[in-house]
Amino acid sequence: MKCQISYNSPTTSARILSVHPTSTAAALALISDDMREVDKVIALRLSSGVPLVGEVAQYIISAGGKRLRPAIHLLMCGALGYRQTQRFNMAAVLEFIHTSTLLHDDVVDDSSLRRGRATANEVFGNPASVLVGDFLYSRAFQMMVEIQDMRVMQILADAVNVIAEGEVLQLVNMHDATLTEAAYLRVIRSKTAKLFEASTRLAAVLNGATFEIEQACAEYGQALGTAFQVIDDVLDYDGDVAEMGKNLGDDLREGKATLPLIIAMQRGSQAQCATIRHAIENGEVEKIEEIIQIVRATGALEATRDAAAAEARRAIEATSLLPANTYTSGLLQLAAQLLERRS
């Protein structure tokens, strides 16, 4: 798999968006019935003899969102022709793992707002959030064992381990204004893209696909996950607070040197670089408006969007080995429409 992204092609976004002009909703509509089945599995497997466990877990799972990891798993299963009910259990496992990372992330980042409402740690406290996150991890592994497939276990266990490494890397990189693009990419490929990759690879494994097809599925997931995170980092400086459900400048407040800031420091004047560097090193948002203007003036937002477009293109190219059907078209739509994301 490729390990670099390029933001030097100004026409990349246009080429990606020309693939399919329809909305993400159209792609997700293909699996609406499947997602209802996944919801049933989630509701059933959230049950616990400890009321607080179910209360906290239900709070964050019911918060909304597109559930992209289960969605791309189900779309990839559809593209490959895999229709067995095991896909629902696998999708629920993926959602449990993702939800547990959200619970832990919000504690680590001291976040108070997610998807437009108070985070679980804000409502229930940090200890409850951490421990319920642990419960969801362990419940996911119980469900993996039930599948009785060592290859599935290996993919998910490796993914969880890589995600944990990514979280630690991000912690180590906090307040480091010298962070390079390569180091930034290492974090997001581990922390975010790895579970996307596992989601699509698992569809191929469940279907008994060839190694070549499995690699193409994994490539799609990794590229899509990388593009998703890059766009997320753009939105921290160019998003709508009401639509995003979180505050602008949250990444800066946490001392994260994301791609828009890295590029802005590469392109900006000495004074502009000093302003951004000081904000990262001190986690200050007092000059957030000035920094947003610097990021825009240096072309860093456009460059970062082009970086995401390059990853979306890689995801689209990976689908060339998949059967031509409506589910594959849905995967293409997700990659193309990702660049229109505003929340």
Topology (SSEs and partners):
Blueprint: H1 12-17, H2 24-29, H3 32-45, H4 51-61, H5 68-80, H6 86-108, E1 113-114, E2 117-118, H7 120-124, H8 126-147, H9 150-173, H10 181-206, H11 211-238, H12 241-244, H13 250-253, H14 259-267, H15 270-282, H16 288-297, H17 300-318, H18 326-337
Antiparallel strand pairs: 1-2
Q: What does this protein look like?
A:
Mean pLDDT is 88; it is low at 1-21. Helix 5 packs across helix 10 (181-206). The protein starts with 11 loop residues before the first helix and ends in a 6-residue tail after the last helix. Strands 1-2 form a two-stranded antiparallel sheet. It has one domain (12-340): Orthogonal Bundle (Farnesyl Diphosphate Synthase), CATH 1.10.600. The protein is globular. The chain is an all-alpha fold and 343 residues long. It has helices spanning 12-17, 24-29, 32-45, 51-61, 68-80, 86-108, 120-124, 126-147, 150-173, 181-206, 211-238, 241-244, 250-253, 259-267, 270-282, 288-297, 300-318, 326-337; strands spanning 113-114, 117-118.
